[in-house]
Design goal:
325 residues, mainly alpha, P1 Nuclease, 3-stranded antiparallel sheet, globular, binds zinc ion
Length: 325
């Protein structure tokens, strides 16, 4: 994603934090959490929301830092998967296999590992803050906003698809019996999202007008990326998950697999460069709603590690077991 899209989405994650948690679900069963659990977690979500709002001046820098300051794009902003469907008999190129069918070639990025590790480091920072005051709340909130970058990138189809990286003539690490798409598409599609976001983000004072060309009116795609916290049907589209203490890495890998599947729809296997412009607007909506939801899911996971409300999961499971027996 591009600069302003990252800022816009981080802000939407904060705006929807409290409302979104009202629709909290469990990742395995896809069942809604019990209302008692939701009430308790929402109370914490409200505190976190206020805290993030307090530091909202740093969103712009923190949510973009991984791209220009840390510059770890090729290592950690992607998880380039391939399957036998687009590259038949290519399992020998797999350095890792996920869920039996999803292969990762060498150098295919470690996005889920980064999110899992960074999220644990951030919640540890808060433990240290409480113990010996070594980390400030500002430093911790900076990291909350910074991790948003990696979470957002996990939803970009091109970031989870090996076909986005055609091999050079010398490269022997990637399969060749299938089709890659032209590497221009990655930037082009992200620019379509950025152009849709800019007028809305300016109108909502999330970003500032810096150049004359920023003052364009909303385009046809803008309505797909608009999420207003006072609109109840927009709120219904936000569906965060209560991830277990040990489940974050698996959750992120599953998310990258979902993103890969979206990429197979957007860039058809037989002719990937001829991408599907018909499904693109609806898919944009789905992707943006899922991003906002998952910012909330991971943020509340980090916050919950300190507050240790992960035991609610257990309570809920026991409760639903008792009801069914
Ligand atoms: Zn990035």
């Amino acid at each position: 994603m591009k600069h302003n899209t990252h800022i816009y989405l981080a802000m939407k994650g904060i705006e929807f934090l409290y409302v979104g948690l009202g629709n909290l679900h469990y990742p395995r069963s896809n069942k809604k959490a019990a209302s008692k659990t939701i009430t308790k977690i929402r109370r914490e979500g409200k505190i976190l929301q206020r805290m993030l709002m307090h530091y909202k001046d740093i969103i712009s820098e923190a949510s973009w830092a991984p791209d220009d300051i840390l510059n770890d794009k090729s290592q950690y902003h992607t998880f380039k998967l391939f399957t036998e469907r687009e590259f038949p008999q290519s399992s020998s190129f797999a350095k890792e296999i996920h869920k039996k069918d999803y292969y990762r070639a060498s150098g295919g990025g470690g996005l889920p590992y980064k999110v899992d590790h960074l999220a644990r480091v951030i919640s540890d920072m808060d433990k240290l803050r409480r113990y010996n005051d070594r980390c400030t709340m500002q430093q911790i909130m900076y990291q909350y906003l910074m991790i948003s970058h990696y979470i957002v990138d996990a939803h970009v189809p091109m970031h989870c698809d090996l076909r986005d990286d055609p091999p050079s003539a010398k490269d022997k690490t990637k399969p060749r019996n299938g089709k890659y798409y032209t590497d221009k598409l990655h930037g082009q599609i992200e620019q379509l999202w950025e152009n849709a976001v800019n007028p809305i983000a300016i109108k909502e004072s999330i970003i500032e007008v810096k150049r004359k060309k920023d003052k364009k009116p909303p385009n046809a795609l803008s309505k797909q990326i608009r999420f207003n916290v006072t609109n109840s049907s927009h709120c219904d589209e936000i569906k965060p998950y209560l991830i277990s203490e040990r489940g974050l890495m698996e959750y992120m890998i599953d998310l990258c697999i979902q993103t890969k599947e979206r990429s197979l729809l957007l860039f058809p296997i037989n002719d990937p460069t001829n991408w599907d412009k018909q499904i693109f607007p609806e898919m944009t909506r789905e992707i943006f709603a899922q991003i906002i939801s998952n910012l909330i899911s991971v943020w509340i996971w980090m916050w919950g590690r300190i507050k240790s409300f992960n035991h609610f999961m257990f309570e809920d499971i026991v409760f639903s077991y008792m009801k069914t027996t």
